[in-house]
Amino acid sequence: MRIGQGFDAHTFAQDRPLILGGVRILADYGLAGHSDADVVLHALCDALLGASGHGDLGRRFPDTDPAHADRDSREFVRETSAMVAGDGWSVANADLTVVAQKPKLAPFIPDMEAVIAAELGIGEERVNVKATTSERMGWTGRGEGIAALAMVLLKPAAQAP
Predict the structure, then answer these.
(1) 22 and 137 in contact (C-beta within 8 Å)?
(2) Residue 56: how many CB atoms within 10 A of its CB?
(3) How far apart are CA 119 and CA 38, in angstroms?
(4) DSSP states along the chain
(5) How far is CA 155 from each of CA 22, 41, 119, 126, 132, rounded to the nearest angstrom?
(6) What is the rounded distance in angstroms from the CA atom of residue 151 to the CA atom of residue 45?
(7) Distance CA 41, CA 44 (A)
(8) Higher pLDDT, 63 or 121
């Protein structure tokens, strides 16, 4: 078994859609970034890459590469999970936390879990997404952006779930 953890954070930006966990969130703002700036999926990719020993998101999908401009982060998850599977690993479970003062995310969490499970090719019961605030402390608490943390457990692909 291998454990990986990931973290990502982006500031808010106007005139961009807000995408979290592969789900479009109704908001008047989005997140600044080279791709679609989905902090949830970026943290997930970093956790997968870390657990499998393949570096990090910036090395695999650098923001200096124009091919990644406005790219859907679900593609990053697909490519990363295919790399992990190619090494003989499968995802036992994924646990993610979104840190955001705004917007309220509870109504969107089931959809995020469904998207993440589908992209990883695992059952929804093996994906957990939760949201929290930072109680108005720090940059997330002041509503300047959103952060996400992810943990994944990989198991040899031959093992049952």
Answers:
(1) no
(2) 14
(3) 14
(4) -EEEEEEEEEEEETTS-EEETTEEE--S-EE-SSS---HHHHHHHHHHHHHHT---HHHHS-TT-GGGTT--HHHHHHHHHHHHHHTTEEEEEEEEEEE-SSS--GGGHHHHHHHHHHHHTS-GGGEEEEEE--TT-HHHHTTSEEEEEEEEEEEETTS--
(5) 24, 20, 17, 13, 28
(6) 10
(7) 5
(8) 121
> Structure pTM?
0.95
Per-residue pLDDT tens for 108-137? 999 999 999 999 999 999 999 999 999 999
- Note every long-range contact of 104-107, with CB atoms under 8 Å and residues 24 or more positions apart, other chains counting: 104/131, 105/20, 105/25, 105/131, 106/131
Strand partners, 20: 23
Backbone angles phi, psi at 157, to 5 degrees: -60, -25
CA distance from start to end of the chain: 12
Q: How many CB atoms lie within 10 A of CB 151?
A: 19
- AA letter at 64: T
Q: How many CB atoms lie within 10 A of CB 116?
A: 27
For 129, the token pair is 């997404």
